[in-house]
TrEMBL record:
InterPro entries found in the cross-reference section: Acyl_Trfase/lysoPLipase (IPR016035), DUF6363 (IPR045943), NTE (IPR050301), PNPLA_dom (IPR002641), YjjU-like (IPR037483)
Protein's recorded name: Patatin family protein
Stored SUPFAM superfamilies: FabD/lysophospholipase-like
The organism of origin for this protein: Paratractidigestivibacter faecalis
PROSITE patterns in alphabetical order: PNPLA
Keyword hit for Hydrolase: yes
Length: 305
């Protein structure tokens, strides 16, 4: 039976957002400029980890929200800290981030989110099978747990259970999900998704970055996931797959199928950054990148104009 979802493609590009904890400030800067300029005509939005958090504010049209949240709560022990890890098993305070912040302190515009017809998927890693899970984020705040699953870092987060599946951070299995967004050979077919013809991709490491897998080795040495052999395999191979993924991305960019926005220089902001100045600087870097390439982005979104 033919797969009609993958055989036909839409003309609008997909928007694909890499994660990286507080490196997501770069992405926030890029997206705020796109929203300010009305460059929001995407076929779908895909976010991994912090990219999923950015995607929520983009879909709800809330300019500045991700930047505000990261700056306002960067040094709040309820937001991300070893104290939170000691108390709850989560480095990121799940209830604080996905309830108090999401619904009270800097709430998502849930109505605008739902009225925006662009579908969104958050990428998480299925711990049982060691594969990527593409979770549709359709309703807020009901689907906030899917974003939480996407951003739950291995080794310092509790596993998130959703519909009988156990999930952790999507970066382990599909850090930059342009393959599924474009329906590339070997990618998974996602229910309800028609592959896009092109993708605007925002990454949070500079173009020369090479991943060495140091963080994954630390997680493996903890033996925390020894009962999940497929997930262990995914952790072991992550650096190699990530570097190959980026190489494929540059090749697609050379053909014009992807437009990539990346930091111009190595990013020194850590996954858990508590200083405000480097975070604000990274946000401004993202804004400058987007502003410098506005004409190029506009032409990529509207090639027939």
């Amino acid at each position: 039976m033919p797969d009609t979802n993958r055989s036909s493609q839409t003309t609008a590009p997909a928007l694909v957002l890499e994660g990286g904890g507080f490196r997501g400030m770069f992405t926030a800067g890029v997206l705020d400029v796109l929203m300010e300029r009305g460059l929001t005509d995407f076929q779908s939005v895909w976010g991994t980890s912090a990219g999923a958090m950015n995607a929520v504010s983009f879909k709800s049209g809330q300019i500045g929200r991700t930047m505000r949240v990261m700056l306002a709560f960067r040094d709040d022990k309820r937001f991300m800290s070893f104290l939170s890890f000691a108390k709850t098993g989560d480095m990121t305070g799940g209830e604080f981030v996905y309830d108090r912040v999401q619904n009270e302190l800097d709430p998502c515009d849930n109505r605008a989110f739902e009225e925006n017809p662009v579908p969104m998927w958050a990428v998480a890693s299925d711990v049982t099978f060691g594969t990527a899970g593409y979770l549709p984020v359709c309703h807020m705040p009901e689907d906030a747990q899917k974003v939480r699953a996407s951003a739950s870092l291995p080794g310092v987060s509790n596993i998130v259970d959703i519909d009988g599946h156990r999930y952790l951070d999507g970066g382990t299995t599909d850090a930059i999900p342009f393959g599924v967004a474009l329906g590339l050979p070997g990618s998974r077919a996602v229910e309800g998704h028609v592959p896009a013809s092109r993708a605007l991709v925002v990454v949070t490491q500079d173009r020369d970055f090479v991943k060495h897998g140091t963080t994954e080795q630390m997680v493996l040495r903890s033996h925390r996931y020894d009962s999940f052999p497929y997930y262990i395999d995914a952790l072991r191979s992550r650096a190699e797959r990530y570097n190959a993924c980026r190489q494929q991305l540059w090749e697609l960019e050379a053909t014009g199928r992807c437009l990539v926005i990346a930091p111009e220089k190595p990013v020194t902001v850590g996954v858990m950054e508590h200083e405000g100045a480097p975070l604000l600087d990274l946000y401004l870097q993202g804004r400058r990148q987007a502003e410098a390439r506005l004409a190029e982005i506009d032409a990529f979104l509207h090639p027939e104009d």
